[in-house]
Amino acid sequence: MTKNVAAMEEALVRILTPRRSTDILRDVHAAKEQRKPYVVVFVGVNGVGKSTNLAKVAYWLQQHQVSVMMAACDTFQSGAVEQLRTHARRLQIPIFEKGYEKDPAVVAKEAIQEATLNGSDVVLVDTAGLMQDNEPLMRALSKLIYINNPDLVLFVGEALVGNDAVDQLSKFNQVGAALSMVYISGAPVMFVGCGQSYTDLKKLNVKSIVKTLLK
């Protein structure tokens, strides 16, 4: 490895190592001690596999003996509730739903209340796929987050969207997309999806990603 390549690798590792870190399992257990569910809201643009990745995270939590409830808060897009319901059935996870044309902020609030009553450790909230120029959906998402104050908001980005994902984040994996998003937002990459099955979810290995970039 030349000196220039080594310097580049060091710089990329530094960029991909976030300025703040999140330990989901630790935070879930901390919320459980306070007798309240840990709430995660999934956001992202249309077509990036938001619901599928929500289901992958649900499966990952199950493997760590964490009880999960799904909340169907995409009340705008036809088929979204049914899709989430299918994942819930396959994973044998309860789902809170109110159908379509409802206020997603209210649905999320009621889901959290239900999870508190039934003792669910985590609520995973699905939301409508967004585009940064769709003001009504952006306002609905802002209201949902403002009212419910989730513990974590996960942005689901797609490798193929490239630097457009940065624009989505500022207004609201070729590996380079992940690099750009981490650099701009300062937020960590929590998981990397690597397939369509529920097991196809990995924690980010920064050094492995950097080596891929430099090939």
Automatic annotation (TrEMBL):
GO BP, one annotated term: SRP-dependent cotranslational protein targeting to membrane
Group of enzyme by EC: hydrolase
Keywords: Endoplasmic reticulum, GTP-binding, Hydrolase, Membrane, Nucleotide-binding, Receptor
SUPFAM superfamilies assigned: P-loop containing nucleoside triphosphate hydrolases (SSF52540)
Principal location class: endoplasmic reticulum
UniProt membrane topology term: Peripheral membrane protein
A Pfam family this chain is assigned to: SRP54
Molecular-function annotations in GO: GTP binding; GTPase activity; signal recognition particle binding
Xref: InterPro entries: AAA+_ATPase, P-loop_NTPase, SRP54_GTPase_dom
SMART domains in UniProt: AAA (SM00382), SRP54 (SM00962)
UniProt-listed Enzyme Commission number(s): 3.6.5.4
Subcellular location: Endoplasmic reticulum membrane
GO CC terms in record: endoplasmic reticulum membrane
Family label: Belongs to the GTP-binding SRP family.
Protein name, as recorded: Putative signal-recognition-particle GTPase
Organism: Rosa chinensis (China rose)
Higher taxonomy: Eukaryota, Viridiplantae, Streptophyta, Embryophyta, Tracheophyta
